[in-house]
Amino acid sequence: MKQVEHALIVGGGIAGCAAAIALAQAGVRVTMLERQQEWRFQSSGIFIYHNGLAALGSLGVLPQIVSGGFAIADGRNIYLDERGEPITDTYYPSRHPDIPPIVGIRRAEMHRILASRLELLRVDIRLGTTAVRIDQNTAEHVTVTLSDGTTGQYDLVVGADGIRSEIRRLVAGPLEPVYTGLGVWRSVHTRPKDLTAKIMMMGAGKRLGIMPISDDQLYLFGTLPEPAGQWYERAGWPALMQARFAAFGGPARQFLDALSADSEVLYTAVEEVGAPLPWHRGRVIMIGDAAHASTPFMGQGGAMALEDAVLLAEMLSRDVDVESALRAFGEARYPLCKFVQDTSRKVGEAGAQEDADIINTRNETMRRTAQRQVHDFYARMDVLRSQLPLAQSA
Predict the structure, then answer these.
(1) Model pTM score
(2) Which domains does the chain have, with CATH numbers?
(3) Does the keyword NAD apply (predicted)?
(4) What is the 3-state secondary structure (H, E, C) of the chain?
């Protein structure tokens, strides 16, 4: 890249690692900052659909992701009610025969794989460090002061520092995450050998999912309304999760019964960020959750971050000036990311219904239309992606 020789990535999560890899593969010298003294990943698992897996293929790590996680070759998703009675099955698509429709993996394992790729590409990773001051006094460079007291000049700064992004404050001003009224509970368990599909159990105001994440493990992920600003003592999380989903039977029952003080459980509030355009200022841009954090109901948060990173590197490699490329990137990604956010929010609202008649109607509607809705969702994503400037010039 003629105009980007040295890039600074702020944030070492999925978006940051992916951006660092994509830019390094394009020949850019990359420095990546991560606030944590060492990488600690508090989310038990993640599942990635085919579009995110395709991006991981572009980053050179798809085989490792598939072997380190659990691929559902037919894309089957089983919907049950809270008692374990069948509602319907759906099947997620794949657009390429070599890419599974969906893979579940421990988040820590995914980051281990990405970190290995970063090391191979000789990305300069600085843990325990973040940006404390950014100056754009010239059109060609960004001067950044780091928390370790050093200062450097960069041709590009990528804010991939998550939902509470400091880079977003520079680009979009005081835009805070919005609480959705929901919380998500996760736990890790031993996987029975015959549990090989993704399962979603739909209850009254609650939903509870089960997803394999390796040959020997799976994770539960459940959402339900939680009071705003509520804080729970970590030691009490297993008992609280058990109580929150006590009404669920069927395949989830054995895992809920197994929760104890020694269980790996995580609770987080569900928040959104919908940054307006532009997503950049000068040569500073935000991607991933910093720009468009979504609710988890379509399972696309990680995939959107991965796609951001791959497309950003591709657009910067074109023969245009940096700011024009950054503007075009934001304009290309915004409609797709907003579509995913809006759809995910609607799905979450449908799953939070508590009225028995509404729940019965919802379940009956799912039997008739769920597979078509899956098809329509991914077809719409394909249309929005085909409108990208890069796709038009290919």
Answers:
(1) 0.95
(2) 6-70+98-177+273-351 (3.50.50.60)
(3) no
(4) CCCCCEEEEECCCHHHHHHHHHHHHCCCEEEEEECCCCCCCCCCEEEEEHHHHHHHHHCCCHHHHHHHCEEECCCEEEEEECCCCEEEEEECCCCCCCCCCEEEEEHHHHHHHHHHHHHHCCCEEEECCCEEEEECCCCCCEEEEECCCCEEEECEEEECCCCCCHHHHHHHCCCCCEEEEEEEEEEEEECCCCCCCEEEEECCCCEEEEEECCCCEEEEEEEEECCCCCCCCHHHHHHHHHHHCCCCCHHHHHHHHHCCCCCCEEEEEEEECCCCCCCEECCEEECCHHHHCCCCCCCCHHHHHHHHHHHHHHHHCCCCCHHHHHHHHHHHHHHHHHHHHHHHHHHHHHHCCCCHHHHHHHHHHHHHHHHHHHHHHHHHHHHHHHCCHHHHHC
